[in-house]
Amino acid sequence: MRAPRSASISSEVGWANIVPAKATKSKLYQWSKAGGQQVLGKLCLVLLVIDVISNNWAIIDYVGDAKHLLTPMLDLNTPEAMLDQYAFPSNESPALMSKVGRFMVNTSFAHIQARGSHTFMLGTTVHPIHDSVNDICGQLVQTYPIKDPNATTVQLGNVLDSVTFIRGNALTHWFSDTNSARQATKGMNETQLRAMGYTPGRHSTDLRLTTPLVLPPPGQVTTGSVFMYRYFMKALCSGCVPLTELGLDTCVIEYTYNENAKSLEITTSKAIMGGSHELGIIIQRRGGPIAALYVRFSTLLLLFGVYAASQKTVQWMDFTQQTLPQRLLRLIAPPLYRQPCTAIGLSDICFNSDIFVVLYTLTVLLDEEISMIYSRILNRWYANSGFDLWIELRLMSMTVRWLWLNCFLLKAAKWMCHFVSMAQYTGTNTVMGWLNFSSVTWMYLSVLLLFERNAFVEFGNSVIVDLHSTTQNLDATYVLFFESWYVRALPTLAAGVIGNLAGLLALDHIVNRKLWRSLARNSLGRQLVFNSTSILSEIRGAVVDKPGYGGTCVDIKIRAWCTLRWFLASHLTSLGLPEQPHVMRALAAATYKSKSPHRGNRDSKSATEDIEESQRSTATTGPRIVTEMEDTTRTETVSSNSELHVVVQDREGHMHVINAEKREMQALAVEVKILRDTNILLG
C-alpha cells in the first residue's frame, strides 16, 4: 500500500493548477474561469444542436414554408407566358436580357415548375423594414404599356439584368487604396470599369411580379398598395446553375393611367415602414450537402457513444496486439469496468478526438456551399432589421461550424510539423510546443472572429457597381469562378482564420508560460504536446512534489488514467518518438536515491546532474519564451517511497507506462488498483 501523503490531493484539479498555489491567481479568478469555461461549453453545445436541427436543409425543404412565394409562377407553362400575363416596361423587359440572363430565368423557372429532388427550397424568414436599406420597392417606378384597352386590372412585371463588378478585397482595402480611391459611378461601361480595377464577380437577374392592380380613371393620381414578388437569380460564373432568392413585399405606390398613350405610370413606390419582407431561397441540391447529412448523423452517434464510454473506467488493454476490427470497435465500445470516471469531458471528444474532428470538418466542407450562401443572404436582410434571437442563434450556429476547421488545421499542422522535422526524441521539436492550447477556453475564444465571417466577406466586396444590360450588351461579359463573390473572399478569410489561431496560440503561451514550462517537465505533458496530434493539454490531475525528482509529477486516479490512456491510444495519432535518455536516467537516479537515502554525496550529485540535464534539454524545445526552468515551491508533497512512472512511446506509436526499472505496468496490477481506487504518480 502506498505511503500516506503529507497533504490531501484532489484528482479533479486540472492542468490549470499545474503551477504551485503561491504562483497561481486568486481562487475567485479560478472559479470565474471555470464557470466561464462551462458557460462557453454549454453555449457551443446549444449552437451545435440548433445547427443540426434548424439548419438542416432537407427538413426546411420538406416543411415547404417558401412554396407560397412561387404563386405568380404556378400557372405559367413557359417563361414567355409572362409577357402575356404581365406588363413590362420597354427598357426593363425580358426581351432585353442577355443570353446568360435568359438562361438564368429559364433555369429558375424549370426549378420552380419541377419542385423535385434537384433543388432545396429554403425559407422563410420575416425581416422588419425600418429604413430604406431593406426597401426594394423602388424598382417598380416605371412606365408600363397597357395592351388591352378594355382591361380593368393589370399585373406588372419588371426585370433587371446585370453583372456586378467588384474591386479589391478586405486586405487591399486595409493595406492599399482600393477602398479610398475614386470609385466607379452608375452608367460606366465594362472598359471603364476594368480600367479602374474592377472585375466581374456575379451575374444577376432581378425579376419582380405583382398582384393585379386596379386601373384608375384616366389622368387621376391614385395611391394604393400592391404585393410584389421578387425572384432574384444569381450565378457565380457564366453558365453556372443559378440560385434564386425569393421575396415578398407590400409596396405603397402612386400611379396614373394615360389613356392616350395606353400606359400606366408609377411615380413613387415605397415599402411600408414597419412592414416586413419575407425571404426564401431556391438552390441546387448537390451531392455534398446530402452526404454531409449522413456524415453528421454518424458523427453525432459516434460522439454519444464515445462520451458514454468515457464516463466509466476503461479496462487496461494491450494495444499492441489488437487487430484493425478490434481497434475500430474499441473507438466507441472498449471493455469497461462499472466504476464511474470523469477524466474526459464532452469538449475533449468534440475538439480533440482525431476521428470526430476529421469527420465533422468533412461535414462542414461538404455543406459549406449552401451554408455560406444561405447565411450571407440571411445576414444581409437581418443586419438592417430588429434583433431576433432565433435568427441570431441560427447565424451563430452556422458560423461556429468553423471551430472544427480550426481544430483540423491545428492537428494537420502538428502532423505536418512532425513529418518534416528531423527530431528523434519527444520534446526536441520546438515548433510543436506552440501548436497546442492549454485549455478548451482558448479554443472557444477562437470562434469570436468567426462570428464576423459574413461582415468580413461583405467588407471585402463593398466596392461594387452593377453594369446593366440597358447600359451595354452583356453577352461578351463573363464571370470567372475564382473571381466570383464568395471565392474571391476565401484567401483573405483563410488568412484571417490562420492569423486568429496564431495570435491566440501566442497569447496562450505568453499568459500561461509557467504552465507550459511545467508541462514540458512531465512525461504525460510531453506526450500530449510533442508526441501526438492532441491540441488540448488539459488533463484532470494534481501536481505534487516528489523528493529527489526535479521534474513535474502528476498524481492522478488510476481509474482516470485508464480511461485517459484509452482515449490517447484510440482517438489520437501517436507520433512514435521515444523519450530522451536523460529522462530515464533522471527517473532511475531519483528512484535509487529514494531507496538509498544514506548514499554519499557522489551519488546524490550524479542524480542531480542527470535531472538538471533532462530539464535543460526539454525546456529548450518548448516555446522560446519559457526556456528557463523555474525552481518553484510545491505546497503538496508525496512520500519519497511512492513509485514513479513515466509515459513513453515505442517507434510504432504504442504507449507504455514504465517505472525506473523499465518494467511496464501490467493489467493485473492495474485491476487491483482500480478496485482499491488508488492513484498513480506520473513523472
From TrEMBL:
Keywords: Membrane, Transmembrane, Transmembrane helix
Region called Disordered, residue ranges: 591-624
UniProt organism field: Aphanomyces astaci (Crayfish plague agent)
Residue ranges crossing the lipid bilayer per the database entry: 291-310, 431-451, 485-507
Protein name: Uncharacterized protein
